[in-house]
Amino acid sequence: MSEPIRVLVTGAAGQIAYSLLFSIAKGDVFGKDQPVILLLLDITPMLPVLDGVVMELQDCALPLLRDVVPTDKEEVAFKDLDAAILVGSMPRKEGMERKDLLKANVAIFKSQGAALEKYAKKTVKVLVVGNPANTNCLIAAKSAPSIPKENFSCLTRLDHNRARSQVALRCGVPATHVKNVIIWGNHSSTQYPDVHHCLVNMSGSELACFEAVKDDAWLKGDFIATVQQRGAAVIKARKLSSAMSAAKAICDHMRDIWSGTPEGEFISMGVYSSANSYGVPEDLIYSFPVQIKDKNWKIVEGLVINDFSKMKMDATAAELIEERDTAVAFLG
Q: Coiled-coil region(s) at which residues (predicted)?
């Protein structure tokens, strides 16, 4: 058995964490022979709930779980981390403007970025889930200047999985038969789910998505809208935001960082936009197609982008620039 790795989950008493922690502790994310120490951070009023979560993790009697540390203190939570999954953020409340939401979250992610800088390993891999995820991730990265920018990413894997699943349902195949969908841009309703490079395995042969689906109007219309608005649809139906599917996407994202992506496949994640070949402006956390090897991601280059896609990619970049500029003003 290797040495245990130290994994932080913030917002650890919340509903996403409740679906997530078991999978991490069981070995689904970092490997079946990788022991873990879980550090669980939440705000002080949530500590009694967190104690209940700790009891349940203990009661699972999991062989890889070496220790669970519940805390409301950043200096405890962020110490010597190998991985940080930042789920906790200020949710949007009724009547709240987007800029109010940004202001509240800038304070949280500035503080957590500073804690990463001060206490975590410089090799820590940081995944930001709490919304607005792209901009929160950017703020955390800017607040931890000695940790490489490449170590920060935000979650668009849930959108990626949603897109993959919608195509699979349409074609009557399992989701595993659909690969190389792309989520471009922001984890918001401006994101662009792109299937121009997607392949669908139909009866043993791989077809281009447009050929497999045979409905261009749907792929350029309702499909995009469904993926963009899926989170809102879940809230409307369940009266709560996505938790099970968000937890699964977090697991997929972190497992791929740790173990790499399969040959010939790419996945979507929000990463630093610097030096990309798609004309996306610098200094954003923007979702790209990436491949991962040896815990390092690389943007997939050379994909042909048509005018329809370019327009959608530019629109979501414009929203991210506006968010970034608002957030950076609050930082100052």
A: none
